[in-house]
């Protein structure tokens, strides 16, 4: 039986980019991996079919509490799927609900966590879920936030942005490597090289360069434009919308920026999303990765 390496993030923070890079690096091919094969190459802990499988019956329409009780069995299913390590995507906050962990510790080897400034998360969240910007700003600041179940996904507990980040970064005993979405844009080779080292995969410079190119935003967006993307939201025109940093500057009001920075000031400061003057500015985080 294998052990799970979680590919974790708050929604709309770069998880798909990370998975696409890992899929392309592992494949080492001359052509990009089909984005619609990503769910085959790394499991997702939100997919209904896995909950149906462990329950032995359809689980659509079950209350959240009943779905949540199935999580440890779903995680067991992932671990039993392969020997060695198993990559599993999650947007769940790392916590316990009714004494049941959202992430099963005894099946966990490690985690990769992608973080993105909540200012850009709010913008991407609004477009992805079809929400007014003001609602998205409030949503990612709501401690009890959960996703709504869909035909192919179960509800997931997100919590607010700060609580989600801290639940992973400060999880006791968890072997963790975290990376910033913004650094992926600015120095993809350096950041992804660190990911490969953390996973213990053999490093090849040419393979790294190819995987970065094969998983860049333009390549992923072109694939979606041609064949669609199975993980796209029904409420959004496209999944790969802009892939930029700093789009909040043209889409959030001054009051919305003030609300988010006030609500998430501690974590934003720690991760380098606020400058010494308390204003948004990406800089080196206060605490090193580890």
From TrEMBL:
Organism annotation: Candidatus Defluviicoccus seviourii
Gene Ontology terms for molecular function: sulfotransferase activity
Official protein name in the record: Sulfotransferase domain-containing protein
Keyword annotations: Transferase
InterPro entries linked: P-loop_NTPase, Sulfotransferase_dom
Coiled coil: none
Keyword Nucleus listed: no
Stretches assigned to the Sulfotransferase domain: 5-270
Pfam family, one: Sulfotransfer_1
